[in-house]
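Entry 14. Ran structure prediction on the chain below.
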Amino acid sequence: MLAYIVRRLLLIIPTLFGILLINFLIIQAAPGGPVEQMIANLEGFEGGATSRVSGGGSEVASGGSYRGAQGLDPDIIAEIEHMYGFDKPAPERFWQMIKGYLQFDFGDSFFRDAKVTDLIIEKMPVSISLGLWTTLLTYLISIPLGIRKAIKHGSAFDVWTSSLIIVGYAIPGFLLAILLIVVFAGGSYLDWFPLRGLTSNNFDQMSTGEQILDYFWHLVLPIFAMVVGSFATLTMLTKNCFLDEIGKQYVVTARAKGLSENRVLYGHVFRNAMLLIIAGFPSALISIFFTGALLIEVIFSLDGLGLLGFEAAINRDYPVMFGTLYIFTLVGLVVKLIGDITYTLVDPRIDFDSREG
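Output, structure tokens:
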């Protein structure tokens, strides 16, 4: 197992390099870079650089000058290029970026006057809170409910819970979030929960117990909005996995030997049925952790990594874009490895050391 873990850790390096290289090449062809953004701002165009670029994917016109920059002093253009590092060739900029990333130095934001590392650390608590609690609650609800539905397959319990799951899955998370605000956050009816933020304004003056309650009080509505739409797929997956295993011959044999139903389900079926569910855990965690909460962050004014990455993409803030991409990818690869290791905890018969490559 140790050899497999070492191989996977070493594989992270070329994977990260390849992902960064592909995205760097795509960015080079995208219109409306930071230089164009600054030129548009200097010339008073509120629409930004993207409204100034027509046609092709380069921010430089065929004549070698930036589109729309004809009215500016060439020295100013050169100063802007130097400020953003675009006075150097693309390969040199990419190599400098890679060297910095190896030391977790992501440079400075183009538009926020702060280091990218500081921005990520600042936004991390919000994303950790949303992603961790949503994933935890989703699995705590979905797995027992899916097992129960498999045991009671075809019963009234199975039918009405399936109906509730379908309704919850059909309601978009952001729409449910707006409904929760209107009903429970002082919108039109009740004023039980706070409307925005992760903590209250007087959080620092509270005792430890009050801070914990205040933290969870702010999380109730956004977490509920995210969980309702997240647990449907996992619940049905758990049910189908258990139904598939329950019908196999080894379960019939175990029951014929006189084993109790709980021993059959949790001593034999659970181990095999959970493998597919564990396989989907890393992708579920990453999607909820970084991307699934974007609209929830906006609606509840929670300034997390999802919103940071989105704003960076809109503003062409390349250091923030690549910094968050690097973190997202690295965490995703590590969590995927943890998921593989968890396989062996659920089913010790799995031996990764016997795999080649």
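Residues 5 and 337 are 8 Å apart (CA to CA). Will compare against last week's run tomorrow.
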